[in-house]
Each structure stands twice: as structure tokens, then as C-alpha cells.
Specification:
- The protein is low in regular secondary structure and 80 residues long.
- 9% of the residues lie in helices and 0% in strands.
- It has one helix and no strands.
Length: 80
């Protein structure tokens, strides 16, 4: 029901405050992207590269994430 942004290269893209509720971002490269304040509730982030992405204030409530990622993303300011 959200946008299908799977398997894209979005390195360094500014997605701050974007509405990405329910988006499919599986296998997307978001290296260095600005996701500050983005609404990623219920998004699919399986196998998504979030290395160096700015997640300050991003809402990841209900997002599908690899289990090991949650703690790391919370340390970078993401909201769960």
C-alpha cells in the first residue's frame, strides 16, 4: 500500500520529513541519505543499506528490519 522503492540506488538523497509509510525499500541503497524526520512506519527495510544515513527523528514504528539493526538505528536517533 506504500510506494515501491525496492532495489533502487538512493545514495545521498534528501528524504528528510518524507512520508514513506508502508513503503517497500527492500534491497534499496540509502547510504548517506538524509531520512531525518521521515515517516517510515510499517515500511519494509529488509536488506536495505542504511550505512551513514541520517535517521534523527525518523519514525520506524512497525518497520520490518533485520533484528540486529534496531539497536544500532536507535543509537542514531530513530524512533521505534
Amino acid at each position: 500500500w506504500g510506494a515501491d522503492l525496492s532495489e533502487l540506488c538512493l545514495m545521498g538523497v534528501n528524504l528528510s520529513h518524507a512520508n514513506l509509510v508502508g513503503a517497500n525499500l527492500q534491497d534499496t541503497d540509502l547510504w548517506g541519505a538524509d531520512l531525518s524526520g521521515a515517516d517510515l512506519r510499517d515500511a519494509n527495510l529488509q536488506s536495505t543499506n542504511l550505512t551513514a544515513a541520517n535517521l534523527t527523528g525518523a519514525d520506524l514504528t512497525g518497520a520490518a528490519l533485520p533484528a540486529a539493526s534496531s539497536a544500532s538505528l536507535a543509537e542514531r536517533g530513530a524512533i521505534f
